[in-house]
Design goal:
The chain is mainly α and about 150 residues long. It has a domain of about 35 residues. It is built from six helices and two strands, in the order αβαβαααα. It has a two-stranded antiparallel sheet with strand order 1-2. The protein is extended, with a radius of gyration of 22 Å. The N and C termini lie far apart (about 70 Å). The relative contact order is 0.06. About 30% of the residues have low confidence.
Length: about 150
């Protein structure tokens, strides 16, 4: 079935919207390690705000593998991966923003793990996963400290 908008553009009755081809560079603070790995702290956007460069693909490989693991094709379309990345970044930004709001309501300058847990408290699956990962981090830190003491360093 033909898309009526595409049909109109082909027939010339409707001009396609011209995209602003002047990319803007937007600095993303707080990601100095990613800068060393190539393009992690800089997001290149088109004039309409959409990401358009490989420098903007921070999670490309990981998302491609995750999509495959959840039943997508082995090599999904780049547009699909870009969409997923946009959704992931939007979710993370929203989570951090809400955690910052909770922290400021509790008169703190920075959010802590409990603020994140408070934000996701209604999603029990995510909450249990965060609690598990925090417990795992404590165990890993204990093992690392034991390893350092045993080596005599």
């Amino acid at each position: 079935m033909e898309n009526p908008i595409e049909k109109q553009e082909i027939q010339g009755s409707k001009k396609p919207q011209e995209k602003n081809n002047n990319p803007e560079r937007v600095e993303v603070p707080g990601n100095e390690e990613a800068d060393d790995q190539g393009g992690g702290g800089v997001v290149v956007t088109d004039g309409d705000g959409s990401q358009s460069s490989k420098a903007a693909r921070q999670f490309y490989t990981e998302l491609r593998m995750m999509m495959y693991g959840f039943g997508d094709v082995h090599s999904p379309l780049p547009q699909s991966i870009d969409l997923m990345e946009d959704l992931v970044i939007q979710y993370i930004c929203n989570l951090v923003q809400r955690s910052n709001e909770v922290a400021s309501n509790r008169r703190r300058d920075r959010p802590v793990a409990n603020d994140v847990k408070f934000v996701i408290r209604k999603d029990t699956k995510k909450l249990h996963r965060v609690q598990y990962l925090l417990e795992l981090k404590v165990q890993i830190d204990k093992v690392k400290s034991l390893g350092l003491q045993g080596d005599g360093k």
